[in-house]
Design goal:
The protein has about 270 residues and is an alpha+beta fold. It has 2 domains: about 180 residues, no CATH class; about 60 residues, no CATH class. The chain contains 7 helices and 6 strands, in the order E-H-E-E-H-E-E-E-H-H-H-H-H.
Length: about 270
């Protein structure tokens, strides 16, 4: 094998990123401005549906990792996707990448070794993984990733296993690089980074909404409707009929006394106005 300058551990490059379209390909066609606008609108709608479907799949079928109280991932508990560090971005695991591939009808289309550095005290290898659409046979994306013997996991385990000669560990190091390349190919070709960002934004918005609903006035009574058709609306702006019906339900269920007090206060002030 030819020695080359070793890559940085875990380095990744990506090519041929797939963005889904509503077109099946074919020769170029001439479109009028009106037809072009309609085609763009159709593609935008299809892309939105595709992205929404992938997001729903993640939320309903993928399992998030488990964390320590400190926020760091529990060992062996990364599941299908996990937060890389407390407050950091999400990443797919191998099992998560496989499930996303299955959902999108993608399979591994082969793996290439693109770079190798092999010496007794240091080994590195770079792999390129390809994704193929099982319905069309087209390549949907590819990515390169590297692994080296200098990584902590290899230093602790393989040094002892192979007596310090990391050339004998080439297969183990190559397997890690191949796994990384596959996961990165799925992540980047599916736009999973953006999907995770949307999920994170939704969570932040939901947390902000729940925090808002905790607001109370000077009397310690709630300010906003905590649920129902007018959730999040200031109680003193909710239609009278709806408030009266909501109050009746609360009385029947005998709960939320502070909310009942607030609604009664608002209804009384309207009667006196």
């Amino acid at each position: 094998m030819t020695s080359q300058d070793p890559p940085t551990a875990g380095a990744v490059t990506v090519s041929n990123r797939h963005v889904p379209t509503v077109s099946d390909g074919g020769p170029p066609v001439s479109l009028t401005p009106q037809e072009r606008r309609a085609a763009i609108a159709e593609r935008a709608e299809a892309f939105g549906d595709w992205r929404a479907g992938l997001k729903r799949f993640v939320l309903e079928h993928l399992r998030e990792g488990e964390y320590e109280p400190s926020g760091y991932l529990q060992i062996g508990k990364q599941h299908d996707y996990y937060r890389v560090a407390p407050g950091g971005a999400f990443a797919l695991s191998k099992s998560g990448a496989e499930k996303v591939s299955q959902f999108l009808a993608w399979v591994r289309g082969g793996v290439e070794t693109t770079r190798v550095h092999e010496a007794k005290d240091f080994v590195s290898i770079t792999k390129r993984a390809h994704l193929v659409d099982v319905l069309t046979g087209q390549v949907r994306g590819s990515a390169e990733a590297s692994a080296t013997s200098s990584e902590k996991g290899f230093q602790k385990g393989l040094a002892k296993k192979y007596g310090g000669d990391f050339r004998a560990a080439l297969h183990d190091i190559a397997s890690r690089a191949e796994k990384r390349a596959y996961v990165q190919a799925v992540t980047l070709s599916s736009g999973m980074t953006e999907v995770f960002a949307e999920i994170e934004a939704d969570r932040a918005a939901d947390a902000a909404r729940r925090e808002k609903l905790k607001a109370v006035d000077a009397q310690g009574l709630p300010v906003y409707m905590p649920g129902g058709e007018h959730e999040g609306m200031p109680i003193d702006r909710v239609p009278t009929r709806y408030l009266a019906e909501f109050l009746e339900r609360l009385r029947e269920e005998e709960k939320a006394p502070r909310l009942m007090d607030k609604i009664e206060q608002v209804l009384l002030s309207r009667e006196q106005a």
